Amino acid sequence: MRVTLDELETFVSVARLGGFTQASRTLHRSQPAISRRIHELEHALDATLFERAGRRVTLTDAGTALLPYAEAALAAVRDGERAVRDRVDRAGAAQTLRLAIVGTLADSHIVDALRAFRSRFPHASVDLRTATSREVSALVRSGDAGLGLRYFPDPDPTLESIPLGAEKLFVVVSAAHPVTTPRLPDLRALGEETWLAFPPERGQPDSLGGRLTRQLAAAGLADPAITLVDSLTAQKRLIEAGLGIALMPTSSVREEVRLGSLRLIDVTAVDARMPVVAVRRTRGYRSTFATAFLDLLADHTPELRD
Fold this sequence. Notes:
Elements: H1 5-17, H2 20-27, H3 31-45, E1 50-53, E2 56-59, H4 61-87, E3 96-102, H5 108-120, E4 125-131, H6 133-141, E5 147-151, E6 159-174, E7 183-184, E8 194-197, H7 208-218, E9 225-228, H8 232-240, E10 245-249, H9 250-259, E11 262-267, E12 273-281, H10 288-300
Parallel strand pairs: 3-4, 3-5, 7-11, 8-9, 8-10
Antiparallel strand pairs: 1-2, 5-12, 6-10, 6-11, 6-12
């Protein structure tokens, strides 16, 4: 039996989303159809690709071995489709920029770049997906997106990380926090606080959580209380409730600051920044639209630059 692209697409979707139900929604197929394709793929390879535990699934060793090749195969097919579309004159055919972006980066400078792109290419459409940094990389790696915008360079050698600049980090506190000044010389006034941080990312030692730990150590805070919370929304709700503080870029809390539920404190001694990068496949096809949008980003992200 031969492996089909439909089977590989289903496999990658289940692996990325962590479940058959989630994959069925994303691929707009019934759950039995998703299960059948995975069964056929496992039968063709004579290997179990997923460990099933209720509705959640995890990759087996065989599945982990297959994943990068499945992603590369899908990306190669999608690259070929884009290469043909770039070279064939199709009167009236709508071409698409496929972009994946961390949701908090969808701010004014990105909107300005998209507006300039639409002005330059009025007949183009934009397929915009929001995701976490890790998910952005996965979408680019599999060819679902031609270009991604995320925090921190991706160490994966199959991806190229193009620096766009960095966002300054501020201490985020609740509106009712007893420290009312917008600026502090150092972190000593916050020494007894509980800090909220993201769990460390596998293969990403220079993550936001890692930067927080280093900043607290540099400030001389002995054994600070750090609670790991893997959701940005949950962190913000906990801060609003007075259950902790965090180190975040302005873009992550812009709406809450505007509404007055959160406040920013600029700490002079803390010069921490989150690098923002564009990611694309190292050997992937350079589409006209993705290249043009990358050029526009360089012109519309001056506030990210040091």
